[in-house]
Amino acid sequence: AEARDILLDHRPADTPVLLASNLGRPEETIRYRRLAELEVDEVDMLTVVLVGSSNSRLARLGEGPRMYTPRGYARRIDGDLKGDRT
After folding, report:
1. Residue 59, CB half-sphere, CA atoms under 13 Å: how many?
2. pTM of the shown model
3. What are the b/e assignments for 18-28, b being 16+ CB within 10 Å?
């Protein structure tokens, strides 16, 4: 809980968090949370915790939710298509 509270001092409460437990094992699970919803009981020694950046997003896809972070080069490509070369 202390680590979450420290992160909340620097990230918005709705920052996406990915919890990956037992990776590579038959009981592998991947869960998504918002930073404010993260519970200490969900994390153990077999859990990888990925905290998104201020730009990260959660998206619903056909297979379930996914976390992603848009990259700056996407803005440059869009700008190039509009003729903006700055």
Report:
1. 9
2. 0.77
3. bbebeeeeeee
